[in-house]
Design goal:
This protein is an alpha/beta fold and about 450 residues long. The protein folds into 2 domains: about 280 residues, Spore Coat Polysaccharide Biosynthesis Protein SpsA, Chain A, CATH 3.90.550.10; about 120 residues, 3 Solenoid (UDP N-Acetylglucosamine Acyltransferase, domain 1), CATH 2.160.10.10. It is built from 12 helices and 29 strands. The strands form 6 sheets. Strands 15, 16, 18, 20, 22, 23, 25, 26, 27 and 28 form a 10-stranded mixed β-sheet that branches.
Length: about 450
Amino acid sequence: MMKSALGACFSGPAMKNVLAVILGGGAGTRLYPLTKTRAKPAVPLAGKHRLIDIPISNCINSDISKICVLTQFNSASLNQHIGRAYGFSSFQQGFVEVLAAQQTPTNLEWFQGTADAVRQHLRYLESLNVDEYLILPGDHLYRMDYRALIQRHRATQADVTLSVLPVDAQQALGLGLMQINPYTGRIIRFSEKPEGEALQRMQVDTTVLGLSPEQARGKPYIASMGVYVFKRAVLIDLLRKCLDCTDFGKEIIPIAIDHFNVQAYAFEGYWEDIGTIQAFFRANLALTQQPDPPFSFYDVEAPIYTRSRHLPPTKHLECQINQSMVSEGCILKKCQIFNAVIGIRSRIGSGCTIRDSLIMGADAYQPHFERRGDCNPNLVPLGIGANSEIQNAIVDKNAHIGCNVKIVNRDRVEEADREAAGFCIRSGIVVVLKDATVPNGTVI
């Protein structure tokens, strides 16, 4: 049945002829204002990481060392992070390279979609000596050994393989859905983000993915994770023959199903699309759960890598900290922190309460960082001033929060754009902008 077809074991397939292509995404409007000054893959995650660290670490842990990242918006910080975090030895013949959109004599357009992004760099990608292209999203949180996926792709002699998982009706609304031959694992129908009756028609019996009948009733859809494996010649053929095809999910995959052997690979682990403020916020706070968070950064066999910063330990001075993650290099003074993620180089003053929030920290220290804490009305220092309260909020990097500030969404606003005042509200979550200053006594 389907379970045995999709769950084939593997013995370590060779990965040296696989090129990973990570899609950095467009302007990242769903994650705005976190993407106001940075590319979506460069958005901070879990206190000290970046979104791009997830797919790159998955590649490294899967013995894939040829990695390209495609991006076109605000790529300076992404370039800097990748350059400092991922340097391969010349003996390893590996690389992590950022390929940004650029105008050429034959192409004057920005990336028009995921497939178009790959097409615009196809000449360079084609010049690399590989057999398969592994296409990956840059804004998802999951841990996956791609060797099993590649083994499944090769064992079934597939032209294209999609990594899939069962989802409920709510999750299915924003995803590509499919129907699969339960005996061969071949995808026979695909629909990108269907709605209404079209969504209902994509329901299937997901027991073929190994779910119990009860689980299958709760998750009656098979969704694409946006993780694709293409044979080299097949991807080149599809992109060159369909020049009007700009998106993998909407156009390339449906065409491939009609003309090639397109297989499904069942993924059984945790997966979260963190492309919106709400999903990003929820995924970060879920990391603080104990003892079994849905995703863990403490996996010894498959670590998540990032840039090494050589920061000093964090100081806790008479603090109460409960169910939280605190990164290195922080100064915390007589504060209370509940269910929060505290980023690197954070300074939190005396009498502060941080609850259900994500504090991203700072890119560098200010002078006299350890002694900061006075409530000077003419100068708000980096960090969070004394006696401030922050709840259900994201405080982006390098924010200057004054003393006696309350960021609690007092009026229960769902959506607001107050960039001139240094913040926005998305899905009821207050987002303090990067480098913003919130004066003493402000109430949001």
